[in-house]
Amino acid sequence: MTMEEIADLIAPPEEDIKAVQDWLDNYAVKHSLLKSRDWIVAELTVAQAEKMFNIKYSLFVRRTGRKVSATLDPYSVPFVVGLLQLGLIC
Known about the structure:
alpha+beta, 4 helices, 41% helix
């Protein structure tokens, strides 16, 4: 099979991809769709993530001295994006 044929089998519908891309664009998040069309790679700041997912990140320091940004909050996503994530919209 070619990569295109595999992508045709595994990729979500175009409207689902567009819904996620539109959501990312709403927050000015840099993103790209992989050739397989089943994965979107996004690069965003902590501030963007906090706003997008309605969470607060904190800076934690491990015993080794390494600093890690993480959240203990449950995240939220727009209803349509959440349905896509759960596989309830295909």
